[in-house]
Amino acid sequence: MTMNRWPALALLAVTISSSALAQENLELGKMWTFERPPLAYLKDEYGFAPTAEWFDRLRLASIRFGRGCSSSFVSPKGLIMTNHHCVRDGITKVQGGNDWVKDGYYAKSLEDEVRVPDLTVQQFVGREDVTARMNEGIAPADDDATIAKKRAANQAAILERAQRDNPGLQPQVVTLFQGALFELYLYKVYDDIRLVFAPHLQTSHFGGDPDNFCYPRYCLDFAFMRAYADGKPVDTAAHYFRWCTGGVKEGELVFVTGNPGTTKRLLTHAQMEYLRDLWHPMQQELVDNRLRIRKDLVAKDPSLERTLRAEILSIENSQKAYRGYWDGLLDQSLMTQKIAAEKAFRARIDADPALKAKFGDVWDKLAQVAERRRGLEARQRFHTFGGHPVLALAVDVIRAGRAETAEARDAAAKRARDNAAAIGTIAELTRTEFLDHVARAKRWLPANDKWLAAVLDGRTPEQTADAFAGTELLDRQKLDDVLARIGKVWDGPMAVELVIAESIRPLVDAAVKEAQELQRIEETQGARIGQALFAAYGTSVSPDATLTLRFSDGVVKGYAYNGTIAPPMTSFHGLYARHTEFGGKHPFDVAPVWLERKDKIDLTKPMDLVSTNDIIGGNSGSPLVNANLEVVGLVFDGNIEMLPNRYVYRAETPRSVSVHVDGIMEALKKAYDAERLVKELLGQSK
């Protein structure tokens, strides 16, 4: 297999003008893939003509961080820049009796850099179009289940060959345009990642949840890590972003590179209505309740704050994000834009008899799936284990006893033993979340629902939850005894959780089976939507985000909001003013070191900035670079207007929010005395 295939850039051009796409409301955003860069668009929009070498440097300096963030190399010695909120969990693992998340950390020498376990970064080094191989053997008459099965087998073969032909690299098959295209991406993985610098939590998270997804902002949400190989810093001299002292000016062209997580801009109007009416209301309720439960626990037992802090911050972020996504779907103007775009898209297909014969029915098929999902949603969410690990364990025990083959029995028994050994969560948290699950199930499921009848069976939810406490299944020896005794016919009295598990297992399996069936149909029909899009619009549009590397163009620009104007950049003046205006009360309290050293800080220096780059969750930690590939900022958030772009792209007011490089440098020099790090970033170290 020949990899590192990058297309001849001169051959790639936008086939339909941006104005034509705008007229049809079919702008799908600017999350461009590196194999299909919109060269004609960049030339027409900015007068910018990047070379193949420019794209290679941009790609190789940009790295995926962990399992859901972005980052970049910013020195020739493997120094990595990302967000503080992307490394908090890792810091928690290595801080021991310290509280580095809250108080910050600085390694004054290489020897002080601390390895974070279970953390990797991935560098995108090669790719190949494998669309034909993914579709190999698929016949026009194949049903959705057969297509899914053949594609899964083809993918397994592609990955197996890629691993054999490219030892030391990690392969991934990437689905683009919902399955119209498939790419094989290869990654170089670095698994020795060490903590170099992290500021105070309050410095990175100033303004807390009230300011999250808002602007103007006054956060320095940054951190530095380093990649090592064979015990030494990785040599990245050939691919890193140099530091741009002075940053960037209003109106200047900038690029974001990173790994946006998920957008759903190719969904049909019917699919979006299902999400609006059912999925999002249930998801919002779940997230709201999970956050409330944790905050209540901390209020009752403050000692749990350190344990639950990172989780609470993460759920707060999710809560606001989901609310913003849902608000977008509730915005009639957004839905009107979607309807108009879909109408124009279908008209293009219907105007061509061949395309109409091939794709004309796809919207109706997806509407049927959306209708079936409406009937499934509550069962899929609540015909589960209710978030209780003991009930999940009991279901695995029952599955082991009812397995048709020895292989299935052994697999279920292993899951049961592994689950039993892993149960060690806060007991009150587990109990409360189970009670919340039952309460929400009562609201969304019919009164005669079989799951509710099986779980409660005349008991109160509290009595059911209490029956799980101290179960013999948690005792490893007793669990083994139960697994040895269970068979086609139970030979003795069953514990409450096993009685419940016996009844709910078929319900759980049925909900999962139907969800998988609908997923297969959506994947097949979604691929047809993608194919139709290519047939109608070519490479004029970018695919939905897939947590794989993209680049996005934009300019530094403020915007109108709340009857006034948001500036393109904020400054340290605003940070201290906000502290004063809120009386220094959390979450608008400046960390003590910043109060002590206020006289040293240049208050005119910029802290944060906004730009028109297209981002979504997963772009956290993305570098913001200028046309010379110098880093001018670090993406850490978007404004609240950005969130509906998950479903329908709008360019007018959504903004990426980044930390300004001058704000980072002011912090390193004057608040944290990080001289070694400053010299490395400025290219002054040996």
Number of β-strand runs: 21
Largest sheet: 11 strands, antiparallel
**What's the structural domain tally?**
3
Number of helices in the DSSP assignment: 25
The helix content, as a percent range, equals: 40-55%
Q: In what range is the share of β-strand residues?
A: 15-25%
Q: Whole-Å distance between the termini?
A: 40 Å
Parts with pLDDT < 50 across at least 5 consecutive residues:
10-15
Task: Name the CATH architecture of the largest domain.
Answer: Beta Barrel
Multimeric state of these chains? single chain
The structure class reads alpha+beta
Shape: globular
How is this structure best described in words?
This protein is 48% helix and 16% strand. The protein is an alpha+beta fold. It has 3 domains: 1-120 and 191-261 and 543-686, Thrombin, subunit H (Beta Barrel); 269-361; 389-516, no CATH class. Strands 1, 2, 3, 4, 5, 6, 7, 8, 9, 10 and 11 form an 11-stranded antiparallel sheet that branches. Strands 12, 13, 14, 17, 18, 19, 20 and 21 form an 8-stranded mixed sheet that branches. The chain is globular and about 70 Å long. The protein starts with 17 loop residues before the first helix and ends in a 5-residue tail after the last helix. Residues 10-15 have low confidence and may be disordered.
Can you summarize this structure?
The chain has 686 residues and is α+β, with helices and mostly antiparallel strands.
